[in-house]
Amino acid sequence: MTTDATSIIEAEALALGYDRRRVLEGVTLRVGAGEFWFLLGRNGSGKSTLLRAIVGTLAPLAGTLRLHPALATRERLGFVPQRLELNPALPTTVREFVLLGTVGLRLARSEERERLAWALERAGLAGMERRDYRALSGGERQRALVARALVRRPTLLLLDEPTNNLDPGAEDALLHLLAELNRTEGLTLVVVTHDLALAAHHATHVALAADGTVVAGPRRDVLTPAALGRAFGLDVGALLDLGRGAP
């Protein structure tokens, strides 16, 4: 399989697992540049397993998984984990926290300052670089995690359950931020979540993990009552109404 110029991620007959125990197999998908993907499924369905493979911390058991050549070193890949614990005895400013995202990059001081300012501005944290990270609200901390990924100036941004434990206002602000990054920066996004309503509202494409494999494609082709019923074991067709106004 050859990754074409517009493909960010391509998987074909991909099998993933741990200690030879397969969690997912037969996974085939293509993530194009500028698309907004949501990876859905029950807990334990393999969502985070696929994300780990894309990040590069889990090797395939079979099949192929390729990223665009610009992502070969993962320098242009941004990752937002569910949470990040800091040593409570070590005071950390927002500036210091966000610059953790530059670890492994060789940047001149001027470029580092430019990237920091850009990431903070895009994440809605401009002027807050001297604040203590622990003094931030839950929504602000999540945006600081996004800024930490953005400081790498990624072409691909991966987010693992980014709205967990956020109140509705903070959740809405975060999804608005992601949608703006997708629209104005052309950033390719892959968001892992169990929230069907978020995917119905915001996704251009969906990968639905169930029964040991993944069904992937444009949102309207994947978020069907039959597919969601198989994946979640519920009558979830009503949730599709939430996404009818989405692009």
Task: Name the helix and strand elements from N-terminus to C-terminus, one letter apiece.
Answer: EEEHEEHHHEHEHEEHH
CATH class of the largest domain: Alpha Beta
Radius of gyration, Cα only, in angstroms? 18 Å
By CATH's scheme, which homologous superfamily of the largest domain applies?
P-loop containing nucleotide triphosphate hydrolases
Number of domains: 2
Structural class: alpha/beta
Quaternary structure type: single chain
Strand content range = 25-35%
Give the CA-based shape: globular
CATH topology of the largest domain: Rossmann fold
Proportion in helices: 25-40%
Query: What is the averaged pLDDT score?
Result: 89
Distance between the termini: 30 Å
The number of helical elements comes to 8
Quantity of strands, as a count: 9
CATH architecture descriptor name of the largest domain: 3-Layer(aba) Sandwich
Biggest sheet: strands side by side, in what order?
A: 5-6-7-3-8-9
Unreliably modeled segments: none
The biggest sheet amounts to: 6 strands, mixed
Can you put this structure into words, describing what you see?
By secondary structure, the chain is α/β, with parallel strands linked by helices. It is built from 8 helices and 9 strands. The protein has a 6-stranded mixed β-sheet with strand order 5-6-7-3-8-9, with helices on both faces. The longest helix is centred in the last third of the chain and has 18 residues, at 168-185. It is globular and about 50 Å long. It starts with 6 loop residues before the first strand and ends in a 15-residue tail after the last helix.
